[in-house]
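Entry:
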Amino acid sequence: MHAVRRRTLDLVRHLSPAELERQIDPIMSPLVWDLAHIAAYEDLWLVHRFAGEPLLRPELAAVYDAFETPRTVRGEIELLDTAAAHAYLEAVRARVWRTLEDRAPDPVIHEMVLRHELQHTETMRQAMELGGVLGPGEPALRPVAPDAAGTEWVAIPGGPFTMGARGEGFAYDNERPAHTVDVAPFRIARRPATNGTWMHFAEGGGYERREWWSDEGWAWKEEYDITHHPALAAGDPDAPACHVSWFEADAFARAHGARLPTEAEWERAATWTQGTDGSLAGVGQVWEWTASTFGGYPGFRPYPYREYSEVFFGDGYRVLRGGSWAANPRVATTTFRNWDLPQRRQLFSGVRLAR
């Protein structure tokens, strides 16, 4: 918990209070909201619910509840300023340490709060990139060299495999229960699509060829006059394409005579260890869109609260897998399921094709 908090504070240390307190974009929070939200969430779970003590600042509960106060209004209401948000973080953390003087941490609740903070630092980086205030050396996307043997596709055999989180360790509710899935044989790209490949698509009519787009994707593209994200042209040609929406990823796949993998296929490929042919390059640099909509596995049960996953089921959200350069490996496991709306491009998201 010490290490994660240092990571959070170091992330924003170079920013002024004005930069922390402004709302960069309506789909993102002011960074100072995230800081106070981290404190409120920690106080709720590790002090109030774990130790049974009253909230430190009950009057702030609704302001820093993600559902009570949606992102669109967070820049319009009164929030704690930078100094007060830092003081709130420190005061809550002191309370947490006191609750642990005579009892051990809960292996689920404390780990959940730890990962919650790690996930928010990635979200904060999304806002920081939109505002042009990322720290030195970021974003940290590395080139992914083609396979030396020239094999661009990995053949994954069909058959049953166990999908989802197993064992008693921590996992989010949407990763459970582990269950058997039978997949047909398929091929998956050895590396994610690169900036160079994406620009070839864009310059070859990728945003003009109607036949490559779904009806919904084409309507979105036309309404908002969408073309490729500036980062795709500015980035290293051999680095993974980033800031790609699901609509664009789907069109890119069709243009290449391919498709997006289902999340079962993605997990099968990522966990398949039968020899070197199963290695997938570039995992963890960009989130990778899948064809799957976000829903519960058979036998799903919400835990420890339904607002983490269940409220997003069946509402058009698409699943992403694999992690990004801004995601901590503690969060981005092979069973972790990220999700967002198909038009979103603020994510550090790309695409890996399947056939």
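The longest strand covers residues 287-293.
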